[in-house]
Design goal:
Strand order of the largest sheet: 1-2-3-6-7-9-8
Radius of gyration: 14 Å
Largest sheet: 7 strands, antiparallel
Order of helices and strands: EHHEEEEEEHEEH
Shape: globular
Number of strands: 9
Distance between the termini: 21 Å
CATH topology: Aspartate Aminotransferase, domain 1
Strand content: 15-25%
Helix content: 25-40%
C-alpha cells in the first residue's frame, strides 16, 4: 500500500511555510516551471511533496497505483526534484546541469542557482514526455 497519496491541501500554503527563504523562493520557481511543463496544477502528495499530473503503473506482481509525473520536495539538506523516468539516457544533460546529486529518480539540488535552469527544464520535459509515452496518464 502506497502511503504517499495526493490530497487537497493547499500547495502554496505548504510552500509559504518552508522556513528557509532561499528554499522557499526556489520552491515557488519550481512550482511555476513544472506547471508550465506539465500543463497540470500542483497537488500536494502526502505532507511534503508537490506533484504534477499522474500516471498509473502496474508491477509484474499485480500491485498497481498512481504516482506523479514529476514533482519536488523542499527538504532540509536539498531540494528533491523527482525525475520519474530516471537518469539513463540523460547523461548529456546531466553533464551540463551543474552541481547536483542523484538517487534512483531523485535529483538533489542545494539551490537552483547551482544548476543551469534551462538544462533542468529540458531534463524535466524529457522525463515527463517519457512517462506520458510509457504509462497511462491523466
Amino acid at each position: 500500500m502506497v502511503k504517499t497519496t495526493v490530497n487537497d491541501n493547499d500547495v502554496r500554503v505548504f510552500i509559504d511555510a518552508v522556513p528557509d527563504e532561499g528554499q522557499r523562493s526556489d520552491a515557488h520557481r519550481l512550482l511555476t516551471l513544472m506547471e508550465r511543463i506539465t500543463r497540470r496544477p500542483a497537488k500536494l502528495w502526502g505532507t511534503s511533496i508537490v506533484g504534477f499530473g499522474s500516471y498509473h503503473y502496474t508491477y509484474a506482481s499485480g500491485r498497481s497505483g498512481d504516482w506523479m509525473l514529476t514533482g519536488f520536495s523542499p527538504r532540509k539538506t536539498a531540494m528533491s526534484i523527482y525525475i520519474m523516468s530516471g537518469f539513463a539516457g540523460h547523461q548529456e544533460l546531466l553533464d551540463k546541469l551543474g552541481k547536483y546529486k542523484t538517487g534512483k529518480s531523485c535529483l538533489y539540488v542545494k539551490r537552483l542557482a547551482d544548476v543551469d535552469q534551462k538544462v533542468l527544464a529540458r531534463l524535466i520535459r524529457a522525463s515527463v514526455a517519457y512517462m506520458r509515452k510509457t504509462y497511462p496518464t491523466e
